[in-house]
Write a sequence for this structure.
C-alpha cells in the first residue's frame, strides 16, 4: 500500500456513506493521532485501539445526527499525497469552510489541527481537510 492515510480516510468515508455504526482500520501511530483529533473535535463518538495478533486495529464508533441520521462528517479530503507533498507555513495556513472545518497537519510538534498550529506558530504538511 503506497498511501495508508488515504486508505484510512477512504474506509471512514465509505463506512459513513454505507450507514455503518462502527468501522475498523489497521492502526499506526499517525492514524491513532488523526483518530484522536476526530474524537476531540466531535466528528466520531468513540474509538479504541484493539491489540491483535497480526496487527493492531482502530475500532471507531461513527457519529450521526439522532433525528435526521445525517453523518457528522460531510467530507474527508486527502490533501498531501506521497507523489505530491503539500506544506504550509503559519502565514498561509488553510481555512477549511471559512473556519467551520479543520485541517489536520503533521508538524514538528506532532499531528495537530490548523488552529493549534497557528497558536504554536508552526507550519507543516497538510494531511487532510475534515468538515
Amino acid at each position: 500500500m503506497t498511501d495508508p492515510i488515504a486508505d484510512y480516510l477512504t474506509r471512514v468515508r465509505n463506512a459513513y456513506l454505507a450507514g455503518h455504526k462502527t468501522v475498523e482500520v489497521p492502526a499506526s501511530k499517525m492514524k491513532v493521532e488523526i483518530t484522536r483529533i476526530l474524537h476531540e473535535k466531535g466528528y466520531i463518538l468513540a474509538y479504541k485501539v484493539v491489540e491483535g495478533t497480526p496487527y493492531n486495529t482502530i475500532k471507531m464508533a461513527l457519529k450521526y445526527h439522532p433525528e435526521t441520521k445525517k453523518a457528522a462528517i460531510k467530507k474527508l479530503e486527502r490533501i498531501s499525497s506521497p507523489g505530491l507533498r503539500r506544506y504550509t507555513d503559519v502565514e498561509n495556513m488553510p481555512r477549511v469552510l471559512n473556519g467551520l472545518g479543520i485541517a489536520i497537519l503533521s508538524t514538528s510538534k506532532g499531528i495537530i489541527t490548523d488552529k493549534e498550529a497557528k497558536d504554536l506558530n508552526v507550519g507543516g504538511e497538510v494531511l487532510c481537510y475534515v468538515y
